[in-house]
Design a protein that fits this description.
Chain A: Belongs to the ABC transporter superfamily. The structure holds two protein chains of two kinds. Chain A is of the alpha/beta class. Chain A has two domains: about 180 residues, P-loop containing nucleotide triphosphate hydrolases (Rossmann fold, 3-Layer(aba) Sandwich), CATH 3.40.50.300; about 70 residues, no CATH class. Chain A is built from nine helices and ten strands. Chain A has a six-stranded mixed β-sheet with strand order 6-7-8-3-9-10, with helices on both faces. A four-stranded antiparallel β-sheet of chain A has the order 2-1-4-5, covered by helices on one side. In chain A, strand 9 and strand 10 form a beta hairpin. Chain B has two domains: about 30 residues; about 220 residues, MetI-like (MetI-like fold, Orthogonal Bundle), CATH 1.10.3720.10. In chain B, helix 3 packs antiparallel against helix 8. Chain B is globular, with a radius of gyration of 22 Å. In chain B, about 35% of the residues are buried. Classes of the chains: A alpha/beta, B mainly alpha. At the A-B interface, strand 6 and helix 2 of A face helix 7 and helix 8 of B. The structure holds adenosine-5'-triphosphate and magnesium ion (MG). The site of magnesium ion (MG) has 2 residues of chain A, from helix 1.
C-alpha cells in the first residue's frame, strides 16, 4: 500500500500549447513505505509534483499513480502537511485532529482512542483543548502532522513542512519525524530546500533540474544510513558530523549548484 | 481593564454633560431657545415617559422601534448571509446574481420608501421592507467577501481529509467566513437604525422617528433631543448585544479574544 509513480509527467500552466511549461517528463518511482525527499531550485515544480499526487492539480501529460491507480481527486488516502499548517483556527487541537476521522465515520470510541494515541505520540496531550493561535509554530505543525497521521494514510505528502519554523524548532521536528518514520514507516514524499534535511530524513533524495522541471538524479541514502548506522545516533548534529553524511550532502549540493549556475548563465 | 474602560467612558459622558450645563446655563454662550438646557431636557423626558407624547409614552415608542429593528435585522441577515455565501462559493451563482445586485446596491434604501408605502401602506410591513433592504446589502457583501477570501489551503486541507459537501460548508466555509460575516452584521445593524428613523420620519404613528417628527412640528427642541438620545441609547444597546454574540462565536479567533 502506498506506492507512488510519476510516469512521464508533464505540466503546462495556462493554455495547452502556448502556456508555461513547469514540468517535463518527470519519472519517479516511490516504493511502499519509502521516504523520498525532492530537492531542486526554486520554481522547478516541486510543489506542483506534490499537488498532483494530492489530487489538487491535474497533469497535462503522462500519469500519476498511487497504488497503481491514476490520481483523479484528493482523498484521505493521501494526507498532506502544508507549509503554513492550514489548521482550522475555529477548532481546538483535538477537533482538528478528529476532523478527518469524523469524515470517515469512524465510531466514536475508536476515534477517541486514535486521537488520544496520536496526541501522545506527538506530545500534544496538554494542548488538546487549545486553539491553534494559542500554539507556537512548531506546536501547530505537530498538530498538522498528527491530523495527517491519524488518518492512517497510504501516503504522506509534506511540502516544506518545517520551512516556516525557526532553526531550533526545526531540528526538534526533524528528529521527531525520523522517530515517527522509523517507528511507523509510511510512504512519504517530502519537499525541502534544505539539503541536510533531505539527507537526514529520506531513504532517497531526488534532485530536480531547473524549469521546466524534471528528475535529474536520484541518490540513495538508505544504504549508507543503514551501513553506517545513523539511526544509532540520537542527535541530528552527531549524524551531520559523520563523514558519510557530509559526503552525500556535498554530492547533492554540487548537483544542485550546477542547476543554479545554469540559471545564471 | 474592562472596568477601567467603563470608567473612562462614564467620565467622558459626565464631561459632555458638564459642558452642556456650562454652555447653556452658566455662561449663556448658546442663547436660550436655540438648544435645550439640561433642565428642559429633563422636563421633556419626564413628560414623555409619564404623560406620553406623540400618542404614547417613551418606552412604548422605544420598544416599538426596537422590535422593528430586531425583526428587520434578523430577516435581512437570514436572507443576506446565505446569498452572500452562495455567491462566494458558486461561480455560476455569482455570475448570475452579482450583476443584478450591483445594479440595485447603489440605490439608497430610503429611495425604496415611496414604493414600500405604496405597496404596503404606512404600517410596519413597509418599514420592515425598507430596513430589510438597507441591512441586506452589507450582509451579502461581507459574506461574499468572507468566502472569497478564505485561504485556499484551508479548503485543500478539508478536501484531503475527504470532507463531504455539507460538512465542508458548515464546518469549514461558514466558520472561515465568520469574522467577515460579523463585520457585515455590524454594518447591517448601523444601516438598520439609520433607515428606521428615516422611515418613521416619513410615515408612522408610533416609534422614536415619529417622536422626532412630532417634536419638530411642535417646535419642541428638548423633545427632539430626547428622541435623538433615545435612538443613540437603543443603537448602542443593540450594538453591545451583537458584540456579546460576536465574542462568543469568534472565541477562537485572535480578534474574538480582544
Ligand atoms: N497555478 C499556477 N498557475 C501558473 N503558474 C504556476 C501555478 N502554480 C505554479 N506555477 C509556476 O510553475 C512553476 C513551478 O511552481 P512550483 O510551485 O511547483 O515550484 P517549486 O519548485 O515548488 O518552487 P519553490 O521552491 O519556490 O517552492 C513556477 O514557475 C510557478 O510560477
Ligand atoms: Mg514549492
Amino acid at each position: 500500500m502506498g506506492a507512488i509513480r510519476f510516469d512521464n509527467v508533464g505540466k503546462v500552466f495556462g493554455r495547452a500549447n502556448s502556456g508555461f511549461a513547469a514540468l517535463e517528463a518527470v519519472d519517479l518511482d516511490i516504493r511502499e513505505r519509502e521516504f523520498v525527499a525532492i530537492v531542486g531550485p526554486s520554481g522547478c515544480g516541486k510543489t506542483t509534483c506534490l499537488r498532483m499526487v494530492a489530487g489538487f492539480e491535474s497533469v497535462s501529460s503522462g500519469r500519476v499513480l498511487v497504488n497503481d491507480r491514476v490520481v483523479k481527486a484528493p482523498g484521505s488516502d493521501r494526507a498532506v502537511v502544508f507549509q503554513q499548517f492550514a489548521l482550522f483556527p475555529w477548532k481546538t487541537v483535538r477537533q482538528n485532529i478528529e476532523f478527518g476521522l469524523r469524515n470517515k465515520r469512524t465510531p466514536r470510541d475508536e476515534r477517541n482512542e486514535l486521537v488520544d494515541d496520536v496526541l501522545k505520540l506527538m506530545t500534544l496531550e496538554s494542548h488538546r483543548d487549545a486553539y491553534p493561535h494559542q500554539l507556537s509554530g512548531g506546536m501547530q505543525q505537530r498538530v498538522a502532522i498528527a491530523r495527517a497521521y491519524v488518518l492512517d494514510p497510504d501516503v504522506l505528502l509534506m511540502d516544506e513542512p518545517f520551512g516556516a519554523l525557526d532553526a531550533q524548532t526545526r531540528v526538534v521536528m526533524q528528529e521527531e519525524l525520523v522517530r515517527l518514520a522509523r517507528i511507523n514507516p509510511r510512504t512519504v514524499l517530502f519537499i525541502t530546500h534544505a539539503v541536510e534535511e533531505a539527507v537526514y530524513l529520506a531513504d532517497r533524495v531526488a534532485i530536480m533540474s531547473r524549469r521546466p522541471g524534471t528528475i535529474k538524479e536520484v541518490i540513495d541514502v538508505k544504504t549508507v544510513r543503514t551501513s553506517e548506522d545513523w539511526d544509532g545516533f540520537e542527535k541530528i548534529e552527531d549524524v551531520m558530523d559523520l563523514e558519510s553524511f557530509v559526503h552525500l550532502r556535498t554530492r547533492i549540493w554540487k548537483s544542485l549548484r550546477e542547476e543554479k549556475v545554469a540559471v545564471d548563465g | 481593564m474592562r472596568n477601567r474602560k467603563a470608567m473612562v467612558g462614564l467620565g467622558a459622558i459626565a464631561g459632555v454633560v458638564l459642558l452642556w450645563f456650562a454652555l447653556t446655563r452658566w455662561f449663556g454662550i448658546i442663547p436660550i431657545g436655540r438648544f435645550p438646557t439640561p433642565g428642559e431636557f429633563w422636563d421633556a423626558l419626564k413628560q414623555i415617559e409619564l404623560r406620553g407624547f406623540a400618542g404614547s409614552r417613551l418606552h412604548a415608542h422605544a420598544l416599538h422601534s426596537l422590535r422593528l429593528i430586531v425583526i428587520s435585522f434578523l430577516v435581512a441577515v437570514a436572507t443576506g448571509i446565505p446569498l452572500g455565501l452562495l455567491m462566494g462559493w458558486n461561480r455560476r451563482a455569482e455570475a448570475l446574481i452579482n450583476p443584478v445586485f450591483m445594479l440595485i446596491r447603489p440605490i439608497p434604501p430610503l429611495a425604496w420608501i415611496p414604493l414600500a408605502i405604496l405597496w404596503l401602506g404606512l404600517g410596519d410591513a413597509a418599514k420592515v421592507m425598507v430596513i430589510w433592504f438597507a441591512a441586506f446589502v452589507p450582509s451579502v457583501i461581507n459574506a461574499h467577501a468572507g468566502v472569497r477570501n478564505i485561504d485556499r489551503s484551508m479548503i485543500e486541507a478539508a478536501r484531503m481529509m475527504g470532507t463531504p459537501p455539507h460538512r465542508l460548508v458548515m464546518e469549514v466555509i461558514v466558520p472561515a467566513a465568520m469574522p467577515m460575516i460579523f463585520t457585515g452584521l455590524r454594518l447591517s445593524l448601523q444601516a438598520s437604525w439609520t433607515t428606521l428613523v428615516a422611515a418613521e420620519l416619513v410615515g408612522a404613528l408610533v416609534g422614536v422617528g415619529f417622536v422626532l417628527n412630532v417634536a419638530q412640528q411642535d417646535i419642541f427642541p428638548a423633545m427632539i433631543l430626547v428622541g435623538m438620545l433615545t435612538v443613540g441609547v437603543l443603537g448602542w444597546f443593540t450594538t453591545y448585544v451583537l458584540g456579546l454574540v460576536e465574542r462568543r462565536v469568534l472565541a477562537w479567533s485572535v480578534q474574538g479574544r480582544a
